[in-house]
Amino acid sequence: MTSQNDLTLLQFFDVGDAKASKDGLNALYSTAVMRSTQALLSTAPTLLQNHIAQSVTEALKGALSVPLVDVLSSAWTTRRELKQYLDRSKFPREELVDHALGKHEIQSTHRPKLQIMLDQSPIGAEFEFAVTVALNVEAAILRIQDGRIMHAQLGKVSGSGAIKCEEATLFARASKPVALPQTLSFGQGIAIPWPKELALTSSVNAA
Fold this sequence. Notes:
Elements: H1 9-12, H2 18-29, H3 32-40, H4 46-63, H5 68-77, E1 96-101, E2 104-110, E3 113-118, E4 121-137, E5 140-145, E6 148-154, E7 157-165, E8 168-177, E9 183-191, H6 196-206
Antiparallel strand pairs: 1-5, 2-4, 3-4, 4-7, 5-6, 6-9, 7-8
């Protein structure tokens, strides 16, 4: 059973819903890349022709297995004000710091691709998808130690998004509440990356 901590983009877009899947598949058939791939396989056995849409759908489901918590944490680690916690002279490794965030929006875009292969040769162009997600977070408190986000407390979260192939919308989600737990644990923590210019300076000094 999937817990709220494991909520993925697959559940976020309700891809498993029968009607949503059928509508998404119909939209996929309207794309130029699907029509051209079908044309190239027009002389292939019916089994192979019918397998195309299923393959694309299954591959897309695999690409949507990204936990929603990862979308949140990845966005948080890029916030400029969190870079201060990398300074060990001000924030020793053993010190715990609670960093409060007010209302904020997180926007994320994923671009999975799929290539249909037949006898180890590509058939047609790649299927390119654009998965956009917008999360509105009421508030969050990030507990940070040793330059890592260890866990977070969340206020209410709502989210919207869309999955497109070319100009066709396969799945869409209107803004509505997201069922995430109030406390998120990140195990060994999620590292706050060093700014590129500082990382470069450290490398030069080490050399």
